[in-house]
Predict the 3D structure of the following.
Amino acid sequence: MKFSPSSAVIESDIILAVQILRNLVSNALRYTPAGSVLVGCRHRQGKLLIEVHDTGIGIPEDQRAKIFDEFYQVNNPERDRQQGLGLGLSIVDRAARLLGHLSR
């Protein structure tokens, strides 16, 4: 995993911000059995975007909106708990909205 250094500063709740990053990175690592994960940020349209990029298996275009729903998992129709509960990205979405940050 690589981190792109930055001198950017954000004002946020530290506990929720760490939870958001932990969930995003954990998800990227889980679905990237080989390759890389990059965490970085960039300025765009007066905002700071924190981004997690990976070379993992990817998410089909038609399922990208659904992955932020509670208990939704791509390719886990049997609901195998070994693959998680499907809450990580819904927590990211809810926490980001609670903080006034955008997650999508």
